[in-house]
Design goal:
Elements lengths: L5 H4 E4 L3 H6 L4 E6 L5 H11 L5 E9 L3 E4 L2 E4 L3 E8 L13
Antiparallel strand pairs: 1-2, 2-6, 3-6, 4-5
GO cellular component, one term: ribonucleoprotein complex
Function: One of the early assembly proteins it binds 23S rRNA. One of the proteins that surrounds the polypeptide exit tunnel on the outside of the ribosome. Forms the main docking site for trigger factor binding to the ribosome.
Subunit structure: Part of the 50S ribosomal subunit. Contacts protein L29, and trigger factor when it is bound to the ribosome.
Length: 99
């Protein structure tokens, strides 16, 4: 596995209606590095957002979609998504405020 640092683990937040509704339960959704483990994701969230404490992490591996352009067929890149559950006494993540 590549040498993945904590600041390379979280790529970007996922902003959808479903993920916004889950924020009321302190669940936040991120696109993460495909080789990141649950422990690495929890450590990255706690280091990048001070005052947060991770209760659990759920991950999903998503295959790339098949795309066509004329006769040539290819696939988009594989991605990995993580849903991070924070503890009840943890602070909220500020990048999601005001959305």
């Amino acid at each position: 596995m590549a040498n993945v640092q904590y600041y390379d683990v979280i790529l970007k937040p996922v902003i959808t209606e479903k993920s916004m509704d889950a924020m009321a339960e302190k669940k936040y959704t991120f696109l993460v590095h495909p080789e990141a483990t649950k422990n690495m994701i929890a450590e990255a969230v706690e280091k990048m957002f001070p005052g947060t404490k991770v209760a659990k992490v759920n991950t999903m591996n998503l295959d790339g979609k098949t795309k066509r352009r004329g006769r040539s067929v290819g696939k988009t890149a594989k991605t990995k998504k993580a849903i991070v559950q924070l503890t009840a006494e943890s602070e909220d993540i500020q990048i999601f405020e005001g959305l």
